Amino acid sequence: xxxxxxxxxxxxxxxxxxxxxxxxxxxxxxxxxxxxxxxxxxxxxxxxxxxxxxxxxxxxxxxxxxxxxxxxxxxxxxxxxxxxxxxxxxxxxxxxxxxxxxxxxxxxxxxxxxxxxxxxxxxxxxxxxxxxxxxxxxxxxxxxxxxxxxxxxxxxxxxxxxxxxxxxxxxxxxxxxxxxxxxxxxxxxxxxxxxxxxxxxxxxxxxxxxxxxxxxxxxxxxxxxxxxxxxxxxxxxxxxxxxxxxxxxxx
Length: 251
Ligand SMILES: [Zn+2]
Prior knowledge:
This protein has one domain (about 1-250): Ribonuclease Z/Hydroxyacylglutathione hydrolase-like (Metallo-beta-lactamase, Chain A). The chain has 8 helices and 15 strands. The chain has helices at about 40-50, 70, 75-85, 100, 105-110, 175-180, 200-205, 205-210; strands at about 1-5, 20-25, 30, 60, 95, 125, 135, 140-145, 155-160, 165, 185-190, 215, 230, 235-240, 250. The protein has an 8-stranded mixed beta sheet. Strands 7-8-9-10-11-12-13 form a 7-stranded mixed beta sheet. It is globular.
């Protein structure tokens, strides 16, 4: 499984994009979250990785929750597909838990409801049901509710080559980590406590989990107190492969 890290920052970053990634599905990319400046973010990450990504190849977006650093780019993507692409462009498929799908138009409508448009004019909506598996671009995707200040889900995304765990924004939650534990590579948020998880909490996990962790959602200037957990960088392209073969290799 091919993972391109597109953003590693938290909500207040003045130097990084919001935490997000692209996962290569069957011939297309799946976007995990969609922060502001999304088109610049995808281009910069692709350039750093030495590849090119046409935004039209991102046919599926999984939105974990409605904090702006995870969804503020949806207006751009909706308008891009509707007005910027010549000819008939299929609407991007938007995958999210019902709590997100039910309210997402409250964020978007003031900017996008001109001429009586509704969300279905821009996106094809697909609910994620926590505990149930769905197929997205040839990958199997499961979701689980996290402990965060608004309804939020973590993700486990797998195909025949590997399994990716995505904590999403969450308090430190051992139950959530047990659920993520099947993954070959676990991208986990690392913040300053409260509704986020701290580095120290992640270092309390068994070593077999720590070796598979990759950190995201870090505050600007974050300096890990040791070098035992691996912070991600924007533009990292990672092969997610079974743990026995190295879990997550940076290209
Ligand atoms: Zn959040």
